[in-house]
Amino acid sequence: MLRTELLFIFVTIIAADCIAQSNQSAFIYPDSTWMQYATPEQAGWSSKKIAEVKDFADSLGSDAIMLIYKGAVVTEWGHNAEVEFIASIYKSLFNSLYGIAIEKGEIDTSATLDELYIRAQPPLSEKEKKAKVVHLLSASSGVYRQGRGPDPGSAEPGEQWYYNGWDFNALGSIYEQETGKIVFKAIEKLIAKPIGMQDYEATWGHYFSQPWRSEHPSYNIWMSARDLARFGLLYLRNGRWKDEQIISANWIEASTKPKFRYVIGKEIPIHYGLLWWISANELSQYDAYFASGVGSQSVWVLPKLDIVFVHRASRDYNQGVYGLDVEEILLQLIEAKIDNSVSQPQFTPVNWSQ
After folding, report:
1. What's the distance, CA 317 to chain centroid?
2. Where would I find the Beta-lactamase-related domain in this sequence (predicted)?
């Protein structure tokens, strides 16, 4: 009986894998450049309504926008080919590096700060030493430094969510310590090159050290919107790019499920997974999750709609766009879809010089 059950499970896994590979073969991926539907109507969108959304986004100060549907560009405008500072989007890039390292057995998410010899100033308490890598990934280590946030020692590891720069910076130190790889070079080798990023290379990343605040530097990275769209598409495709499984699908699923609920102000709910934000409002019906940086630089993934959306704010990102306005842009673009796409749409390479 047990042998029969095991055989059934094995056949089911093989069948599911074959179906997944078959589905992947039908997906569109950009090669040396992105392909765009010949007209938005070819993808089922209204050109007129998209123009209205563009006017709205321009009025807010949006600098670059890309809407990807089924792996091709529906519409894009602004400075999508220009390399810009991505702010905290880098944390979701860290998610990909950790997913790969964990799959290879290079990092153990159950390892504690004490076991990894991670230090802080003032020194970690016995409680703080028990924080695990998984707690840092979910911003719930309970290690509070840098003179702000909750009082040190006020929460057990894993008990309380707090958007904590110490956690994210320590993750970078742990990654480099445990893998022997430099973060910026790892992004280039393990992510950028396999998915054909057009602009990113390791020299677009720099450490930002403030030793009087933390032993662990932060990570400043510059990327183009069109490369961020590739990153979003990699997650939309569950970590697979053409014939290569770059990031474990199980890791992506675990990372984009809510671990903590947070309320901005007193009325705007939002969820956090593992280095990804997860929508808890109107966009949640599409299982939407996103990477976000100051000024509303963002990469949105909407699995139920097969959509990736990239938004860049004004290049003076301190004058960026309010987050809820970015969501409104995305919602209006979704509403601009008026019909199903044609069965055999025509495509043209994106003209980035426009």
Report:
1. 19
2. 64-320
**Measured between alpha carbons, how far is residue 14 from residues 1, 7, 246 in Å?**
20, 11, 19
Distance CA 297, CA 284 (A): 19
By C-alpha distance, which of 204, 219, 187, 41 is closest to 100? 187
In the chain, domain spans? 34-349
pLDDT at 319 exceeding the cut of 70: no
Cα 286 to Cα 307: distance, rounded to the nearest angstrom: 10
- Structural contact between residues 65 and 78, judged by C-beta atoms closer than 8 angstroms: yes
pLDDT tens-digit map of 272-298 = 999 999 999 899 999 999 999 887 899
Dihedral sign of CA atoms 56, 53, 285, 159 in order:
negative
Return the number of other C-beta atoms located less than 10 Å from residue 265's C-beta.
5
Q: What is the pLDDT of residue 5?
A: 38
In this prediction the pTM is 0.90
Q: Which residue has the tokens 């080798």?
A: 189
How far is the C-alpha of 256 from the C-alpha of 250, rounded, in Å?
10
Residues β-bridged to residue 348 = 36
Give the ranges where the chain is alpha helix by DSSP (H): 2-25, 47-60, 90-103, 126-129, 133-137, 165-179, 183-186, 225-236, 249-255, 323-335
CATH number for 34-349 (one of 3.30.450.40, 3.20.20.370, 3.90.1150.10, 3.40.710.10): it is 3.40.710.10
Amino acid in position 309? F
For residue 290, is it left (φ>0), alpha (ψ between -120 and 50) or beta? Answer: beta
Expressed in angstroms, the distance from the first to the final Cα of the chain is 65
* DSSP, residue by residue, 25-85: HT----SSS-EEESSGGGGTB-HHHHHHHHHHHHHHT--EEEEEETTEEEEEEESTTSEEE
Q: How far apart are CA 38 and CA 347, in angstroms?
A: 5
pLDDT in tens, 232-250: 999 999 999 999 999 999 9
**CB distance 133 to 110 below 8 Å:** yes
Residue type, 236: L
